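Supplementary Note 3. Input sequence used for the single-chain structure prediction.
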Amino acid sequence: MRMTFLGTDSEDGHCPTLYKTDRGTIVVQGYKINDPEAMGDVRDLAENETLVEIPRKLLRFATEDE
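The predicted structure, written as discrete structure tokens, is reproduced below.
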């Protein structure tokens, strides 16, 4: 898989960031969710999955322009 940078709201070059892949998917770099109460709200999280939190405004980089 190869990824292409889409955008970030970070001023110092760290997360959160969005990428598109050559598979037609989006990869999200964000803040790892560790809060037990929040994790209790999650359904059907597979062993090979994780959750990350990003600002809603970051989604503006995930457009269908291609």
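The first strand starts at residue 3 and ends at 8. The chain has a mean pLDDT of 89.
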